[in-house]
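Protein Entry — a single chain follows
Fields — amino acid sequence, structure tokens
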Amino acid sequence: MSDTTDPAPASAPGPSSNSGRASHNGAGPSDIRDDLVRQEIKRAAVWIGMAGLAALAVYLAHPLLVIFGGFVFAMLIDGGQRLLGRVLPIRRTWRIAVVLLLTVAFLAWVVEFAGSQIMSQAAEMPPLVTAQAQRALDWASAHGLTMGRSDVSSLLQQLLGGVGQVTQALGGLFGGVTTLLIIVILGIYFVLEPDLYQRGLAWLLPAESREYFHGTTHRMGRTLRMLLAGRMLGMVVEGVCTWIALAVYGVPMAALLGLLTGLLVFLPNIGAPISGLLMILVGFSGGTAMGIYCIIVYVVVQTVDGNVIVPMVAKRTADLAPALVLGAQLIFGVLFGILGLALADPLVVMLKIALERQAEHNTRRDEATE
């Protein structure tokens, strides 16, 4: 009988020193192994990021518009130096300096030689406009369009309130010395070293997208220069033609009205009615014939230039439909005020070119894959 012993029973699994380490190295409670859930989380993150960027863009709308205004001012200077380069073959930096000096000299001439006359006319305009408005109300009352004192008071308050808002907006645009100074400084920086900023933006993009970016910015700059040249042409044409037409007939404050008309062309769809209203009120101060003449001048100048020349120039330079331009101006004006209204055309042009370039890129990619 052999002396045999039963094998020792297998020890029950118990806690080991490595069990804790294994549990920590394994999957955690936040690990998501479901591919569908991970895909949906990525989509949600993209939408949340886009919404955050949109909210940030709205919050920073004014600084972004100021920066874009500096870019637009740089395009104006660059267009001037390119035009000057056709007749003056000197270095680009010197041509930019000449353009800036000519601009400063023109402003100094306006202030020195025409400033006193224009300021005296500007001082005479408010009481004249008020008197003409009262005459218009008296005429309406004489022809049966009776209005109670309370109605007249309410109407005047609304009119004065609207004029006050426009004046405040214009003052914020043209009288905001700090904002204008920042725009001018940014424009000078951009135009002196455009390649520096273009390379810096391109460096933020993937290497394969940089050539596409350079082509897009080149087309944007060329188109924007042509569009701004058309706008400057419209300002000169409307201002000079209005001044000459009113001065020939002997309309008071012809120089001031011409200057206001030319400046307000930069504010599409708002500047024309304001300048036209002032022109007509001043015209009727010299009699019915003069008032009718001012109406004719306003209609002819605004129709030919504001509704024909400027939209057609925009269409030929940037292929923009006039209705698209008008709609963009209304939308940007409501969203961002006077500054957005003034920069609506350049913004639409750049957006249109970006979309066209993307469409061309997608077409070439599809043709290459086929």
Observations:
- Residues 137 and 143 are 10 Å apart (CA to CA).
- Confidence is low (pLDDT under 50) at residues 1-6, 10-17, 19-23, 155-175.
